[in-house]
Amino acid sequence: MTQTVCITGATSGFGRAAAYKFASEGWHLLLTGRRSDRLEALQAELAKQTEVATLTLDVRDTAACQAQLATLPANLAPLKTLINNAGLALGTTPAPQSSLDDWHTMIDTNIKGLVTVTKTLLPQLMAFGRGASILNLGSVAGSYPYPGGNVYCGTKAFVEQFSKAIRCDLLGSGVRVSNLAPGMSESEFTLVRTGGNQQAYNDLYRGVEAIQPEDIADTLYWLATLPPHLNVNQLELMPVQQAWSPFAVQRNSSD
Ligand code: NDP
Ligand code: 8X3
């Protein structure tokens, strides 16, 4: 039977690597993102291996998501797996210095966009039933706060809890839901977060063997192809070279 995966944010990083992985395993692909030039290049490359459709789609555009995702091209139906990957962090500054516009963009993309795509594709995933999956990209930021993480951490906490809560609603449908929560990973994510600061990117990854997009692609593929009676609720991945720090304590200078 045809196996089709829809990947949001396929133009870069995890999503792009997942497109290559699923294509190499013979899955059909529906790839979305805002950068149409990258989608066209991906389609030209991957159509040599499998059926590929691309949609230039901003997940913040609810009407466009509903119009374009409600019905899949015939050669892609039925949809087995949705990878809710499109997302971003903007800024690393403490809350008082952060931009409210950036906060809203993260909420609109990581929360509202993910919810819109999920709601729109849910009927198709439920029609597939047993074996279907929704794989959400959370983050360690959803569980462990850090300075400057403010709204980004909040959006990923939402993704974790939303993933678990809709599992309750989908009980009996056969549709699985997983929250994949990676730690430090090397991708354009850091350039987006820092406004294109290549020095910040180099400094972050210097001397660290970070998670690579291909590691996440392999994990997503493993999740999507688990036996249909198994649901991984939550999966956290970190580089071996990353761990937690002690709590910060603010002491009174007079004591
Ligand atoms: P990248 O920046 O490499 O990729 C992000 C993708 O999201 C791009 O394809 C981008 O496509 C897409 N995207 C962003 N905004 C929108 C939007 N409004 N509409 C549609 N697509 C959008 O980052 P990663 O691959 O590293 O990140 C992927 C996911 O994993 C994100 O949700 C991120 O929060 C999460 N994550 C990342 C970690 C990391 O350290 N890198 C660790 C843990 C989780 P385009 O610009 O073409 O629209
Ligand atoms: C990305 C990982 O630690 O930069 O979600 O927030 S982190």
Polypeptide structure, described:
This protein has a single domain, classed as Rossmann fold (3-Layer(aba) Sandwich). The N and C termini lie far apart (about 70 Å). The protein is built from eight helices and seven strands; from the N terminus they run βαβαβαβαβαβαααβ. The mean pLDDT is about 95. It has a seven-stranded parallel β-sheet with strand order 3-2-1-4-5-6-7, with helices on both faces. The protein is an alpha/beta fold and about 260 residues long. α1 links the parallel β1 and β2. α4 runs parallel beside α5.
Concise overview:
The protein is of the alpha/beta class and 255 residues long. The chain is built from 8 helices and 7 strands; from the N terminus they run E-H-E-H-E-H-E-H-E-H-E-H-H-H-E. It is 42% helix and 15% strand.
Task: Pick out its properties.
single chain, alpha/beta, Rossmann fold, globular, binds NADPH dihydro-nicotinamide-adenine-dinucleotide phosphate, binds 2-hydroxyethylsulfonic acid
Shape: globular
Bound molecule types: NADPH dihydro-nicotinamide-adenine-dinucleotide phosphate, 2-hydroxyethylsulfonic acid
Class by alpha and beta content: alpha/beta
Tally of domains: 1
Tell me the total number of β-strands: 7
Question: What's the overall average pLDDT, rounded?
Answer: 97
CATH fold-level name: Rossmann fold
User: Main sheet?
Assistant: 7 strands, parallel
